[in-house]
Task: inverse folding
């Protein structure tokens, strides 16, 4: 018998290795973008044709490679990023295994052009099936351009396995976004079949998120930031009202590397619990920086799972950081001035897309494979004053409009031991002194420590009543006053069932209602602090309103009842208030656990800071 064990030829070995590293065009995109980042580039341009099946090209202005390095980088295990096993525990770069380029060279037709700053000429290399076809000097700018054509041209089984262009492009965009989010200080663009899809000017993380996720997040991001010796966390979460019905804009990065972690996701969701409906998903983009030696580095770099030395610490930390951020925001509904001005000035808004370019882009089929939010250029210019207008309008939306937040104060208190810093004092927000005025019978304006606040009287009163009712349900029942002349109400059968379910809670809220048979109820008593005489109308209206909510499976019965009653009994916009009424409204509001917004997340008041106003007036 002859010996049968042989070494695999290099190209076959690379093709096999590629199976692990390069599963689809998007994985090559990720590797090439990460290499450009590692090379210290400040501008990275990605071009794809046919969803990367025909062409993937990345052009960067990073440090480039020497002639020798340019040849070497396609070898398996060729890397400049680690030298010994110890280095593995201090990895700060995105790549380190030296497999990506070797794999790519095994499954595509690759061309590399690269030049270091100090070299006069650059190097051009063409490589196919792991074999160098050509190498020669070339005149190029500093940096590197790598293009790979016809991915898997020599592995038909894999090529056939690729999905539709729309689907592969979706994957590419996902990878692009993950890298672009992690490095807001780098300019990124993505051009697909000659059409620029993203044009992301360098800026702050906040600007980058708005560029990527859409301008509707501009005033809806809550900053998360906590630092400890063990780890740091920073980033943004969307305000509760931006939670969506589909999981989507949720990003975790550990040391700038995108990861997927059901466990950490749970920590964030937990922090949001009761502020959003059970079946909705808040936006978050969170960065955890941690000593790499506290991570298990043996996890494959292309896999997005990660192992922490101590998961529980990380979980508690993430949860408390997010809770803390949300609590901060909830007592601080200030207008977001800085972002908008910054966006106005950033080139991403003013430069890249002319109107006709935009209409050409939107009519293309490519465009339709993206959702609007992924269009970098959908940021509309708005003047600062318009932004104020937009903010102020929030309060006048209908109650029945999509409502998703709602805060369980109790929960917040229970977990406040996690808080790392004291909450912002709500006393600082409260209108001080005695100088209130009511405008349009709707807004109450008053001076506070930092400037002035504008309170929306109906929103504020909804909050006050909601908390009062919540306390009643939780064990401080509202006193009932017996009616001298009990009123009867007759209902249709459906409503009878409904009211029967609510009787116990209504009692806690001060309404003593007894079934009388035949769809009839008798109102024996009503809350002591509500003027008697309207009980019947109140209950009927309450039921009516409640039914509006009842398709809304997000809330339990009790929550619906509280919200309904709070809305119904609140003093409406358009009602004139005297000075005493305004004063007690303000006092009651700032007695609330969460004075900032209605149970549905509409602001109760807006704060206009003096120093921001000064700035706007050019002072
Ligand atoms: P790794 O990134 O794990 O080191 P790669 O196969 O991705 O492995 O790249 C091999 C090497 O080629 C890198 O370590 C780096 O030195 C060099 N390289 C790759 N891409 C670039 C680039 N865009 N600019 C400069 N050097 C690069
Ligand atoms: Mg790499």
Result:
């Amino acid at each position: 018998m002859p010996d049968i064990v042989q070494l695999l030829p290099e190209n076959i070995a690379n093709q096999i290795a590629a199976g692990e590293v390069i599963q689809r065009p998007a994985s090559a995109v990720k590797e090439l973008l990460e290499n450009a980042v590692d090379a210290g580039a400040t501008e990275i341009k990605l071009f794809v044709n046919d969803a990367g099946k025909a062409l993937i090209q990345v052009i960067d202005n990073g440090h480039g490679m020497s002639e020798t390095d340019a040849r070497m980088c396609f070898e398996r295990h060729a890397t400049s990023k680690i030298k010994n096993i110890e280095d593995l525990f201090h990895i700060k770069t995105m790549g380190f295994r030296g497999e990506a380029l070797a794999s790519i060279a095994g499954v595509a037709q690759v061309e590399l052009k690269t030049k270091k700053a100090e070299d006069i000429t650059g190097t051009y290399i063409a490589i196919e099936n792991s074999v160098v076809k050509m190498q020669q000097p070339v005149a190029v700018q500093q940096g590197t351009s790598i293009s790979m054509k016809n991915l898997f041209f020599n592995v038909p089984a894999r090529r056939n396995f690729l999905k539709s262009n729309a689907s592969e492009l979706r994957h590419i965009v996902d990878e692009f976004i993950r890298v672009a989010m992690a490095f807001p200080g780098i300019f990124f663009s993505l051009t697909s079949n000659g059409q620029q899809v993203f044009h992301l000017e360098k800026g702050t993380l906040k600007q980058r998120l708005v560029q990527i996720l859409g301008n509707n997040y501009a005033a809806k991001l809550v900053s998360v930031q906590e630092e400890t010796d063990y780890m740091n966390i920073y980033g943004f979460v969307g305000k509760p009202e931006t939670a969506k019905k589909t999981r989507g804009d949720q990003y975790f990065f550990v040391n700038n590397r995108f990861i997927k972690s059901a466990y950490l996701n749970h920590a964030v969701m937990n922090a949001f619990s009761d502020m959003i409906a059970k079946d909705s998903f808040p936006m978050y983009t969170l960065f955890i920086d941690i000593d790499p030696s506290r991570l298990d580095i043996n996890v494959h770099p292309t896999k997005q799972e990660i192992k922490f030395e101590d998961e529980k610490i990380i979980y508690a930390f993430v949860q408390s950081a997010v809770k803390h951020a949300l609590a901060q925001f909830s007592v601080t509904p200030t207008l977001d001035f800085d972002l908008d001005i910054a966006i106005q000035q950033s080139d991403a808004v003013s430069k890249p897309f002319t109107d006709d370019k935009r209409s050409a882009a939107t009519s293309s089929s490519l465009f339709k494979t993206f959702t609007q939010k992924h269009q970098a250029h959908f940021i509309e210019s708005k003047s600062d004053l318009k932004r104020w207008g937009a903010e102020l309008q929030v309060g006048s939306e209908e109650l029945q409009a999509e409502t998703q937040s709602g805060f369980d104060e109790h929960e917040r208190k229970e977990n406040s031991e996690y808080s790392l810093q004291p909450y912002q004092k709500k006393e600082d927000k409260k209108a001080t002194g005695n100088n209130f005025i009511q405008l349009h019978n709707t807004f109450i304006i008053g001076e506070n420590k930092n400037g002035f606040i504008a309170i929306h009287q109906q929103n504020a009163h909804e909050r006050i009543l909601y908390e009062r009712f919540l306390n009643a349900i939780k064990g401080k029942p509202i006193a009932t006053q017996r009616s001298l002349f009990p009123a009867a109400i007759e209902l249709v059968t459906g409503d009878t069932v409904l009211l029967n379910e609510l009787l116990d809670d209504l009692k806690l809220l001060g309404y003593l209602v007894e079934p009388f048979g035949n769809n009839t109820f008798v109102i024996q008593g009503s809350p002591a602090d509500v003027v008697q005489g309207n009980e019947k109308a109140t209950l009927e209206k309450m039921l009516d309103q409640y039914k509006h909510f009842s398709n809304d499976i997000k809330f339990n019965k009790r929550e619906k009842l509280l919200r309904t009653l709070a809305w119904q009994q609140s003093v409406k916009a358009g009602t004139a208030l005297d000075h005493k009424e305004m004063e007690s409204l303000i006092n009651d509001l700032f007695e609330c656990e969460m004075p900032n917004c209605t149970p549905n997340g509409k602001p109760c008041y807006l704060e206009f800071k003096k120093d921001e106003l000064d700035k706007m007036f050019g002072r």
